Structure formats: C-alpha cells, structure tokens
Amino acid sequence: MELWITGGIRFARESIAFLTVFIWAASMLTSVAQAEPKALTLTVEELVTDTVVAGIREWATATVVTESLRSRNEGAGQLDQSQIDALDKQWRAETKTDDQPLITSVLANPLSSYLYRVQARSVGLFTELFVMDRNGLNVGQSSVTSDYWQGDEAKFQKTVDVGPGAIFVDAPEFHDGTQTWRVQVNMTIDNAAGQPIGAITVEVNLTELERRTLAGVGA
After folding, report:
1. Is 197 a domain residue?
2. What is the CA angle 72-78-81, rounded to 5?
3. Measured between alpha carbons, how far is 46 from 90 in angstroms, rounded to an integer?
4. Range of the structural domain that residue 20 is part of
5. d(CA 159, CA 170)
C-alpha cells in the first residue's frame, strides 16, 4: 500500500510538472504569435488600388452623405475650438454612461443607418465607417467611436485641410482581437461645386481584401 501511495504521489508530481511546462510553452507560443502577426502577402499599395478607392468614393458620395454634410455645415456653422472641445468632452463622457443624448442623435440619423448598411453589405471588408463635417466632428458612423472630434488627426488634416479629391491611406495596423490587418482609407468629400464639405474614414480589413484579391474576387 505504501509503495502504491508513494508511486501515486510521484506520478502526481510528475504530472503537475509536465502540466506546468506545457502551460509555460503554450503561453510562450501565444506570446510569439501575438508579437509576430502573420504578414500580408501583398502590400497595401497592391491591395488598396485605384479601383478599390473608386468603389469607396462611389458609395461615399451618395446623396444621403452629401446632404447630411450640407445640412450639418449650414446648421452648425464654423465652431470655435472651445465649442468643439466641449462637444468632444461630452461625447467621451457619454461613452461611459447609459445616458447618451449626443451619441444617440448621431447613431439614430439617416447617415449612420446608411453607413451601417454599407458595412454590413461588405461582409467583413469594412470594419468601421464614419463621416466628418468641416469642423472635424462626426456626422454619421457605423458604430460608436471613442471620440467625436477628428480635426486634430491626420484623417482630417490630410483630407479636408488639403482640399478637393484628397486621399490619405494611413499605415496598416494589426488587430489582435480578430488577428487581421486593417488600414484606414480617408478621403475628402466634395459638393457639386467641387468644394470640400467633409471627409470619410473607411477602415478596411486588409486580410479579407487580400483573400478576395488572390481569389480573383472583386472588393
């Protein structure tokens, strides 16, 4: 009996030791996988082609987009920085509470509904969409953004501040949650007279775009 117990204890200790090593090895492999995400086969330039950009611009300049921007710009006018900061502060605060009048007013408008449908129809190609007015404030979006004002970021400064027809493709980033590469495609939205009235940011799932490109399926 004593021998059996001793052997059982030894077996348990060895099992625990093996399990500890196994867990450590698994965690190391996970860390390596997270530190070294799978690279894309194609470059951003090969993926975000003129054809892809033209496709985005086609739906991004729909009447609901341009009319929403015209209405917002006319209604809000040119805000000073203190007004913009106050609105952005309110938005950030609302993201942490259940009382969200400002966020709700944006998410419930026709433009946000349109952007949500565009994202859904893309079947995983677009992961986030939002439109900014000439003040750099969100007019419509497919989901809640962390902030309301984009005027201090490159997505606005390299589009609206540059002028009509401007396009800015940001650096790609790896999204740990979905293990996919993403990039933001930003462009100025112009009115019929060719004047900048706002901008749009389209976050593109590069991993999905590459899959479609290599399979010969259009974006």
Report:
1. yes
2. 115
3. 40
4. 1-36
5. 12
Structure tokens of 17?
């030791």
**Beta strand segments in the chain, E:** 126-132, 138-141, 167-169, 173-175, 180-190, 196-205
Half-sphere exposure of 32 (CA within 13 A, CB side): 6
123 and 17 housed in the same domain:
no
Indicate whether 5 and 110 sit together in one domain.
Answer: no
| Distance of alpha carbon 89 from alpha carbon 87, whole angstroms | 5
pTM of the entire predicted model = 0.82
Q: Are residues 10 and 93 in the same domain?
A: no
Q: At what angle do helices 110-121 and 63-76 cross, to 10 degrees?
A: 150
pLDDT along the chain (219 residues), means of 10: 46 44 45 66 97 97 98 92 97 96 97 98 98 97 97 97 97 96 98 96 98 90
Indicate if 103 and 171 belong to the same structural domain.
yes
Q: Which long-range contacts (CB under 8 A, 24 or more apart) does 51-56 make?
A: 51/218, 51/219, 52/185, 52/204, 52/209, 52/219, 53/167, 53/185, 53/187, 55/219, 56/185, 56/187, 56/200, 56/202
My answer on whether 107 and 52 are in the same domain is yes
Report DSSP letters for 88-109, one per residue.
Answer: HHHHHHHTTSS--HHHHHHHTS
Q: Which amino acid is at 10?
A: R
